[in-house]
Design brief:
It contains 13 helices and 18 strands. It is α/β, with parallel strands linked by helices. The protein is globular and about 60 Å long.
Length: about 450
């Protein structure tokens, strides 16, 4: 008998690799012991996680108290389930959701499932690093047909938007603000981090596993105010999550909250600032982002791509969270050690010293987001066919094309494909990036 997935993962674990990727517990180092014995189901002795569980209610109340929400929930279906519930509670079928151009693919999929139209407001790019910049305002895009706004903050690169100002603009228009703060669950730990969006937004989601000591799938959902239909949100949570939730995942979400302020984020912050100082002295550029524990290291000064740097580090036993054409992204948490940070630094320094220098030239930047209002649910019902990506300009996309990570769409379900999108996706694939939605050089389009 064979168990190929199990055997593959066991082999991975046996290598004792260094992780600067998700989950935050770093290959189990930050998790509490005895988790396997907690894998139970709904029994009189264990309660039901979704239906009035006394202990789950207490855990949710502690979660709400920590983040300062009106109401909070532990989820086991990741931020994807949270985003689905958030949109369900904010926009009725046929309504319009205004979204940032760097939203996660789960936003598009949720709109398709819920029959919600989606419109994007443009995102500026940091020309030096080629990453999405902060959103400072949405006021000019709040047209009368918009029902809610969703913003990603921080993004994958640790850049935060002005959530307080955006929330004020939305509330002046009596619109709810939804914030995908999946990468900012640790912001509540210390004032060295940006303010959590829970202070200002109507609903916020956190992926606890991204930076905290929680297992994959652990997430938090927070609700505030009266602009969100809380009854619809709670009903949506039972629709979009499994009827057999993982008690183990829920338990790690609970313990991650319990230890958030006591696991040493201040030490982690100092390690990252020391890394940044060393990089500056060596002439290696690191993005000056809002979350200083999210290290975005840029290689556009060299004849080497971020994908190639990722592969070199991987061969040396170091896993980073993601790469793009110009950068690598390392997620540092309290479960990372000083020795691991030193090894990362010496590897980065060696790569930079061996790479050939060039004039700063970012080159290919992500294309702007679609400007039309899309109705992904309609396209899901159309007949589709495969088309060669190189010949798909002008066709209507039936799938979302997403470099993963970070999971930010380049081609959106329901939009007319543009030549600049094809060129960018092709460049990503040729450079070694993983692109979901393209299979053997083909994309699904309306027949």
């Amino acid at each position: 008998m064979a168990a190929p997935l199990y055997e593959h993962l066991k082999n991975y674990a046996a290598q004792n690799r260094i992780s600067f990727a998700m989950p935050g517990h770093k290959n189990g180092r930050g998790l509490r012991s005895g988790l396997v014995s907690l894998d139970v189901t709904e029994l009189p002795a264990t309660e039901n996680l979704y239906h009035g569980s006394e202990h789950m209610q207490k855990a949710n109340a502690l979660l709400s108290s920590l983040y300062g929400s009106d109401e909070s929930f532990i989820l086991t279906g990741g931020s994807t389930a949270a985003i689905q519930a958030m949109i369900c509670g904010a926009v009725k079928k046929g309504g319009v959701l205004l979204a940032s151009g760097d939203c996660h693919v789960s936003v598009i999929n949720a709109c398709a499932l819920l029959g919600v139209k989606i419109r994007f407001f443009p995102k500026d790019l940091d020309a030096e690093f080629g990453v999405p910049a902060a959103t400072e305002t949405v006021k000019d895009f709040l047209t009368p047909d918009v029902d809610a706004v969703i913003v990603t903050s921080p993004n994958y690169y640790g850049v935060c938007s002005d959530i307080k100002k955006i929330a004020d603009e939305c509330h002046d228009a009596s619109l709810p603000l939804l914030v995908d703060e999946a990468h900012g669950a640790h912001f509540a730990a210390y004032d060295i981090f940006p303010e959590t969006a829970v202070k200002y937004a109507d609903t916020v989601c956190h992926s606890a596993h991204k930076t905290l000591n929680a297992m994959n799938g652990a997430a938090y959902l927070h609700l505030n105010g009266t602009l969100i239909d809380r009854a619809r949100v709670k009903r949506a949570l039972t629709v979009f999550q499994s009827t057999s939730p993982s008690y183990v995942i829920a338990a790690t979400a609970d313990t991650a909250r319990d230890e958030l302020k006591n696991v040493g984020w201040d030490r982690t912050y100092r390690m990252c600032m020391n890394f940044r100082d060393a990089a500056a002295k060596a002439g290696i550029r690191v993005l000056d982002n809002d979350d200083k524990t999210r290290l975005v290291i840029n290689f556009s000064d060299y004849y080497i791509t971020g994908f190639e740097v990722r592969d070199i580090l991987s061969e040396n036993g170091i896993d980073i969270e993601m790469a793009d054409l110009f950068n690598i992204v390392a997620i540092v948490t309290p479960s990372n050690t000083l020795e691991e940070m030193r090894l990362l630094w010496w590897n980065i320094l060696e790569i930079a010293e061996k790479a050939e220098k060039k004039d700063v030239n970012i080159g290919t930047l992500p294309p702007p987001a679609c400007e039309e209002t899309l109705d992904p649910s309609r396209v899901f019902a159309y007949e589709w066919e495969e088309a060669e990506l190189e010949r798909a300009a002008g066709r209507i996309a039936c799938d979302t094309v997403v470099p993963y990570p970070p999971g930010v769409p380049v081609i959106f379900t329901g939009e007319r494909i543009r030549r600049e999108q094809i060129e960018y996706v092709s460049r990503i694939a040729e450079a070694g990036g993983e692109v979901n939605g393209i299979e053997d050089g083909k994309i699904l389009v309306v027949k």
